[in-house]
């Protein structure tokens, strides 16, 4: 697997997801700040991925066995782009938007991006684990919190 191809694919996913979130910000003005926050985070993830492509950062990448396959990246891109087309072509409710966002965030490529980001900024093994866990759960938690506050998800 070509590492730079994986990095470029993951960056494309992050940027496409950012576009979906900005579209949601336009569609749901009452929740605009929420969607813009996610949008900004996605662009930041893309930036981290570009930094990850530098030669001095390659050693910080997760082992190749933890990287998503190019096939899973392509499938994720197709899902995100299909989501964008759906949002642009038909009405969507806030609940549907949140459920789609949750599906996107739980994807393998998102997990990889969060792990790479954590690796790039970790100074030791312990902080690496903490950052990986925090980064992976951050967006899922934000979206679930919004769903709970709007009554779309019940606490169990």
Describe this entry's structure for a reader:
This protein is mainly alpha-helical and 156 residues long. Helix content is 75%, strand content 0%. It is built from six helices and no strands. The chain has helices spanning 3-27, 32-52, 70-89, 94-105, 108-121, 125-149. It starts with a helix and ends in a 7-residue tail after the last helix. The model is unreliable at 125-129 (pLDDT under 50).
SSE layout and pairings?
Elements: H1 3-27, H2 32-52, H3 70-89, H4 94-105, H5 108-121, H6 125-149
Largest sheet: none
Distance between the termini: 41 Å
Structural class: mainly alpha
Helix content: over 70%
Topology, number of strands: 0
The value of Rg in angstroms is 16 Å
- State which percent range the strand residues make up: under 5%
The helix-strand sequence is HHHHHH
Average of per-residue pLDDT values: 80
What spatial form do the alpha-carbon principal axes imply? globular
The number of helical segments is 6
Low-confidence stretches: 125-129
